[in-house]
Every structure is written in structure tokens, then in C-alpha cells.
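Input (structure):
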């Protein structure tokens, strides 16, 4: 319960947090700004008259009446445009995340909007971010992973996010340069990207290939707005391959197990330069570049998930293929009798004493969504030792045996391996760390091998799909035939 406290002199309060709290509670805040921040304190500030508030589906939009929106009239006008622009996301969010309680399902997701000109020295964006950083002492766990918030580089950008909250500065040059388009579509894209990031980074364990991250985001975006936000002149820089510095988000970093997962999720709004390439045309995105991909099958080297897995590549043509494939998987050929991919990912992970989160490996979740690819099932059923021999990484076997962890090689699942290590107090700290790292490295190599098998299955499924339907299927019977062709191709070995 928050109870009113007398106002404290500004000089005695911690910086930007003090500023926004004083603005929100001129007669005294119902909490101590010198104490620990929380979800409760963050929302208490947002629910004051300093902010306008509107609910749009699962999103709670808060607009700060300060700086460029100091006049209530200006803020109300902006809020009206924002609500209209986010409305298309409601049906999509309900369809994919409205059936269960999870990371996204059943939650309210705050979006906080500010309009702070850096040239004018306006500070509302910085104040909200400072408040959020303070609240993250007891909120979504973002800071526990070593992720920065109140950072100069982030504060100079368009937005700052945690696992649950996004804060935008709509005075930023990117938003300003796109004018009404950003409010009509761009903001919704960023929010759907935020949702996709969370289910992929927290709902499963392991590295997420760019085609999957971008494919899910783009599919949600196109389903909502009938056209992709990313395209045309917005392709301004190329996504790197599968590499993420320090394996952040995959390999926990710390002095001793069990360390916390570190590193922010990859930026899902990454784009590449506009070269006039037909793969980047927004006008083709509604049909998921279907006819372009059908024509591409006749080329010497058509777009291929297998190629992406082997070469860790991701180019505009690959993004087009990922859009079409995720559209088929999530919409046209949505499975019956089993959970779809997003439902599988929309679950809250827990971290037992062993330190290894209980989430399925991302390849296992994806394999379940495909109904089971035999080669992946075989790898998952193997003992750790059998798997490492099969994928050509026997050096890990030798290291584990030398460390006295040979017994663990009989265990197939990395979560059970971590539990085995946790229950062996005989290992000193340095040895435990080496064994822990070997568990993670083995899982990393296993997932790389499994993505190759999954990629080959997707290639078979999409090849049969495109051969059957030369044009994007619109009629119900055509959609049914496409679904049958896709699943048959996936299961063909």
C-alpha cells in the first residue's frame, strides 16, 4: 500500500527520478524516492495527472504532458493519433496471445510517450527512463541481466525498453522524419517487435537466428497493417549474421555458476540500405513476396534456410523467405491438434537453484511447432556424449572427462546436466565454471546442428508450397492445399 509522504527538498532527491516524482506529486509522493523502486512506484507516477492514459488492447499508453506536449491540447491530439495507429495491433495480439497466461498473454504492457527536444534541453524522456531504471530494482528483471537503461547512447535514441515497458521520445529525428507514418504504423511495428523479442528471448533458450526474429516480427506487423513497416527507404543497414557479442542472451556470464543471462535482445528493427531491390518493396509484402519467391526457385541458388544456417547469412531475399514461411506456419497452415509456435513460446520461464532456466531450447520449441523433424528428434534423444560425437565435437567430451564429469555425459538435456552439476559439491569453483561452460557450449553446437535440419525441413515445405501455388493463395480451398503441401514437405525426409 502506497501512503502519502511529505515532499522532500529536490536537492535531497536522486536526480531525474526526483524531478519527475515532484512533477507527478507536487504535494508529496506516496513513496520514498530514496528507497527501492518497483513496478508499483513506476505505475503510481504514470497514473497521475502528469500523464494521459489510454488502453489499446493489451497496451497501456501513457503520454507525458511536458516539454513538447506541455499543453494538454497538444498532448490530447497526439494521444488520439497514437491510439488510432495502434488499433490494428489489437486483433493480432488477441489472436496469438489472448488464449493463455504467459510472458505476453494476460499482461498489460506499458508504452510511455514523451516529446523532448535535445536541442532545447528538454528532459521528459530522460526523466521517464530514470524512473524506469529505478523501478527495475523490482520489476521485470531487465537490470539483473546486466542491461543498461540510463545510458547516454540509449538516451540519445528513439526508445528505451525493458522486458515489459517501452519508452519513446517522439521528438527524436527518426520519428519526426516519418511524421504521421510513424504514429500510424511505426509505433505499432516497434511494439510488435518488442513482443516478438520477449517471447523469443525469454520463452525459449538459445540463440535466435535473424530470419526467425525478423520473420515473426514482420508477420505480426503485416497481419496487423496489411503492409510491412520495414521496406523501401527504411532498409538502411544490414543485419549481421547469427553472431551476438559474447553470446549474450545465450551463454550466461559471471564468475561462477549459476550466473544470470546477460545482454539485451537483438534489435528487431534492424534494416538494410535501399538499393531498389524488389525484395524490399512494401507493395510486395502483403503477399509475402510470394511470386518473387516462386520465380526465385528457378535460379541457380534460390533462397534457402539451409544456406542461411550453413553461412550465417541474412539478406533482403532471406527476409522475404522468412516472411512467407512464418506466414504459412502461423496463419495459412496453422497446425490443428497441437500448439503453434507463438503459444509454445508464450510461457514464463523459471530458474531453479541449478541456475539453468527451464525453457525449452529454441530448436526444440520450433521442432514441436513443425510436428517433429526426425533428425532433430534423434539428436534430442541422444546422450550428451552420443550427440557430441554425432555433430563432431568430441573435444568437449575429453574436457569433461578430464574435469571428472564423465558421468554427466550420459545425460541428454542441458537442464538436467546443470542439475547434476549443482548436486556435486566436490568440484571447486574453477572446475565448476569450466563444466558449466562446457554444458553451454555443447548446447550451442547442438542447436547449430539442429537449425540445419530444421532449415532443410522448411526448405522442403516451402518448395512444395511454391510449386503447388504459383500465386499467393486467397481462396479457402487454395489455402487448404497450400497447408497440406507445406506439412507434407516438412515431414518428407
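Output (sequence):
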Amino acid at each position: 500500500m502506497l501512503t502519502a509522504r511529505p515532499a522532500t527538498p529536490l536537492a535531497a532527491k536522486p536526480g531525474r527520478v526526483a524531478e519527475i516524482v515532484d512533477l507527478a506529486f507536487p504535494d508529496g509522493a506516496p513513496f520514498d524516492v530514496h528507497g527501492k523502486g518497483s513496478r508499483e512506484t513506476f505505475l503510481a507516477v504514470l497514473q497521475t495527472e502528469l500523464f494521459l492514459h489510454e488502453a489499446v488492447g493489451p497496451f497501456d499508453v501513457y503520454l507525458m504532458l511536458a516539454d513538447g506536449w506541455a499543453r494538454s491540447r497538444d498532448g490530447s491530439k497526439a494521444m488520439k493519433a497514437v491510439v488510432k495507429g495502434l488499433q490494428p495491433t489489437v486483433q493480432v495480439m488477441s489472436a496469438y496471445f489472448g488464449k493463455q497466461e504467459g510472458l505476453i498473454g494476460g499482461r498489460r504492457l506499458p508504452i510511455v510517450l514523451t516529446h523532448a527536444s535535445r536541442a532545447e534541453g528538454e528532459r521528459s524522456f530522460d526523466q521517464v527512463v530514470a524512473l524506469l531504471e529505478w523501478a527495475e530494482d523490482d520489476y521485470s528483471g531487465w537490470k539483473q541481466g546486466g542491461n543498461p537503461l540510463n545510458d547516454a547512447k540509449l538516451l540519445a535514441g528513439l526508445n528505451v525498453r525493458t522486458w515489459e515497458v517501452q519508452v519513446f521520445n517522439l521528438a527524436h529525428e527518426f520519428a519526426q522524419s516519418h511524421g504521421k507514418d510513424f504514429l500510424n504504423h511505426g509505433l505499432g511495428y516497434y511494439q510488435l517487435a518488442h513482443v516478438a523479442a520477449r517471447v523469443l528471448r525469454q520463452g525459449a533458450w538459445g540463440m535466435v537466428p535473424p530470419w526467425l526474429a525478423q520473420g515473426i516480427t514482420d508477420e505480426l506487423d503485416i497481419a496487423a497493417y496489411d503492409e510491412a513497416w520495414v521496406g523501401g527507404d527504411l532498409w538502411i543497414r544490414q543485419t549481421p549474421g547469427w553472431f551476438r557479442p559474447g553470446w549474450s542472451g545465450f551463454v550466461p556470464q559471471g564468475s561462477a555458476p549459476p550466473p544470470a543471462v546477460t545482454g539485451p535482445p537483438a534489435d528487431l528493427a534492424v534494416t538494410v540500405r535501399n538499393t531498389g531491390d524488389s525484395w524490399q518493396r512494401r507493395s510486395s509484402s502483403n503477399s509475402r513476396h510470394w511470386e518473387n519467391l516462386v520465380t526465385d526457385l528457378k535460379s541457380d541458388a534460390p533462397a534457402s534456410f539451409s544456406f542461411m544456417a550453413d553461412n550465417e547469412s541474412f539478406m533482403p531475399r532471406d527476409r522475404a523467405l522468412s516472411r512467407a514461411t512464418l506466414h504459412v506456419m502461423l496463419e495459412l497452415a496453422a497446425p490443428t491438434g497441437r500448439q503453434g509456435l507463438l503459444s509454445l513460446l508464450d510461457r514464463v520461464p523459471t530458474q531453479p537453484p541449478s541456475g539453468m532456466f527451464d525453457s525449452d531450447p529454441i530448436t526444440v520449441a520450433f521442432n514441436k511447432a513443425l510436428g517433429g523433424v526426425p533428425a532433430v528428434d534423434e539428436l534430442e534423444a541422444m546422450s550428451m556424449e552420443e550427440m557430441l560425437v554425432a555433430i563432431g565435437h568430441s573435444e568437449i567430451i575429453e574436457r569433461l572427462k578430464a574435469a571428472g564429469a564423465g558421468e554427466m555425459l550420459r545425460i541428454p538435456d542441458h537442464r538436467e546436466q546443470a542439475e547434476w552439476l549443482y548436486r556435486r559439491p566436490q568440484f571447486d569453483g574453477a572446475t565448476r565454471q569450466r563444466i558449466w561452460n562446457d554444458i553451454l557450449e555443447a548446447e550451442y553446437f547442438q542447436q547449430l546442428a539442429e537449425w540445419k535440419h530444421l532449415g532443410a525441413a522448411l526448405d522442403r515445405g516451402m518448395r512444395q508450397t511454391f510449386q503447388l501455388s504459383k500465386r499467393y493463395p486467397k481462396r479457402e480451398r487454395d489455402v487448404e492445399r497450400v497447408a497440406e503441401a507445406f506439412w507434407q514437405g516438412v515431414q518428407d525426409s
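Notes: Confidence is low (pLDDT under 50) at residues 3-13, 233-272. Residues 429-468 form the longest helix (40 residues).
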